[in-house]
Amino acid sequence: MNFLLSPEQTEFQDTLLRFLDDRCPSTRLHELFDEAGYDAQLWQSLVELGVAGIALPEEHGGSGMEMIDLALVAEVLGARAAPTPFLGHVLAGLAIAWGGSEAQRARYLPALASGELLATVAFDEVGAWQPEQWRLTEEGGRLDGHKQRVPFAEHADLLVVGLGGSGLGLVDRASAGLEIKAEDAVDRTRPLAGVQFTDVSVERLANDVGVAARLRDAALVLLAADAFGGASRCVQMAVDYAKIREQFGQPIGQFQAVKHQLVNMAVEIEPARGLYWYAAHAFDHIPADAERYAALAKAHLTERFLQVARDTVEVHGGIGYTWECDVQIYLKRAMFDYAWMGNASAQRARISL
């Protein structure tokens, strides 16, 4: 079994990295982070590179690729802490591609692939990330209730909403009775909001049986990939800083204790690349392993990202705690990846049952 990337996949990742280094360097990232902002132009440029429709059907304007291709994009975005609505948008598109009627697919998917519409997903209720736990109920095509921690909700045109009974529904951002309120979020690269539904019109996905669980697994794989990218970047930042920061007349990277810390960080992360690759592969090709490995990849990689980000702060010393340092952005992104869709303990507990 060959898990090496194809030349096309490697080139696409390299292209995205060059693009983000050019269009969203550290200075621009800090500007957006300070404002908790959304750079619509940056997102539209990524859409033009094919990011939004990479896994959507070709007949509806997408590229028809697989989960591994989506995950490779997520890795690059994580490596540059890119402030984009990628996660919610692609999950919403997959929900419609898998669960929508032909009319729903024809109506929404081309607009999502082209960036004409921006979408997100509204899953979380208090203590209820999993589809079988959702309580928001659709009655007669109307919704009443609340969702929280919805990424980029203030900017989205369309919401894919998790419903009681593991269902999914579509809500137009302009619907009467819909109230969106920004929430305090530690990761400003992915702003969150609470969404209140008061007699809001909802369009149920026509073929949503089993789709919510599959969508959950897709989210876990993408979070794992994002975490791998972010953690790898943290290791590189720590190594680079250890080469230039001097203490007692020599770079701190020459001290044995620092060397050991850097090596431990690297060996925690690099071997885990295969975990998210396999989870993405299983998602499309080994259904019996898909749920388990999506959860394991999310649990392990987001946990490691959080620890490596903290270690990177330590290597940087006092400057690592400052707002001006890039490291704090990655630490906060690690906190998002760890918590969103359920933390490591919750993932392991769920698949151990």
TrEMBL record:
<dbReference type="Pfam" id="PF00441">
    <property type="entry name" value="Acyl-CoA_dh_1"/>
</dbReference>
<dbReference type="GO" id="GO:0003995">
    <property type="term" value="F:acyl-CoA dehydrogenase activity"/>
</dbReference>
<feature type="domain" description="Acyl-CoA dehydrogenase/oxidase N-terminal">
    <location>
        <begin position="6"/>
        <end position="116"/>
    </location>
</feature>
<comment type="similarity">
    <text>Belongs to the acyl-CoA dehydrogenase family.</text>
</comment>
<keyword id="KW-0285">Flavoprotein</keyword>
<feature type="domain" description="Acyl-CoA dehydrogenase/oxidase C-terminal">
    <location>
        <begin position="222"/>
        <end position="351"/>
    </location>
</feature>
<keyword id="KW-0274">FAD</keyword>
<dbReference type="InterPro" id="IPR037069">
    <property type="entry name" value="AcylCoA_DH/ox_N_sf"/>
</dbReference>
<protein>
    <submittedName>
        <fullName>Acyl-CoA/acyl-ACP dehydrogenase</fullName>
    </submittedName>
</protein>
<dbReference type="InterPro" id="IPR009075">
    <property type="entry name" value="AcylCo_DH/oxidase_C"/>
</dbReference>
<dbReference type="Pfam" id="PF02771">
    <property type="entry name" value="Acyl-CoA_dh_N"/>
</dbReference>
<keyword id="KW-0560">Oxidoreductase</keyword>
<dbReference type="GO" id="GO:0050660">
    <property type="term" value="F:flavin adenine dinucleotide binding"/>
</dbReference>
<dbReference type="InterPro" id="IPR036250">
    <property type="entry name" value="AcylCo_DH-like_C"/>
</dbReference>
<dbReference type="InterPro" id="IPR013786">
    <property type="entry name" value="AcylCoA_DH/ox_N"/>
</dbReference>
<dbReference type="InterPro" id="IPR009100">
    <property type="entry name" value="AcylCoA_DH/oxidase_NM_dom_sf"/>
</dbReference>
